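Minutes, project check-in
Item: structure for the 229-residue chain
Input as provided by the requester:
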Amino acid sequence: MHHLNRSGRENRAALFDVDGTLADTNHLHVVCWWEALRQAGHHVSMHAVHRAIGLPGEDLLAHLLGDGQERDTSEDEALSAAHDTLYGTYFDRLPRIDAADELLRALDRRGWRVVLVTSAGSEELDALRRAVDADDVIAATASSDDVEEGKPAPDPVHHALELADASAHASVFVGDTVWDMKAAARAGVAAVGLLCGGIPRHDLEEAGARAVYRDPADLLGRLDQSPFA
């Protein structure tokens, strides 16, 4: 199946995670999940929460509270709602990571179709898109609501490739978590890791990152030597 554009060249998708990759929000999520859990009587370390960021809410809770038969999942919805309420207080001032918008524009100019791949819900995604401020070059958005299973399953990446009408081998996925790297690798897409979400280089490489950069500015400065070359 060839995904060709008008000039007969293969469509190439530049797939991007958003939290921790384009917007500096991972630690805000950590604090909000930590507080939601604390209010419900669960004492989970911030470090553990940080390592789970990037998983969809119910998977994050299963990861932190145990996914065995004995876990009571009846409070998951309330925990997620508490997180969303706490996190919503930051919507008007979510910080973009420096040069995130320039990186997306540079890839768009080079003929890449930019697609966001996120676990964020629609309201949260609107706030993130306002923060990133590059809507003019974002071709599509794939959210975990659109698929059966979120990252680290490959489903969100497959869905994003369909939206971009691009093949896996011609595409690149940029993210900041182990879950991003695993999802990309399982979908057969080159995985690029960024360190700005706070996850160590070794963990990203072990999960399948082909290349690792400090942040969007670092990747932008070295695009010609990157998997995007």
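Outcome recorded: The chain has a mean pLDDT of 95.
No further action items on this chain.
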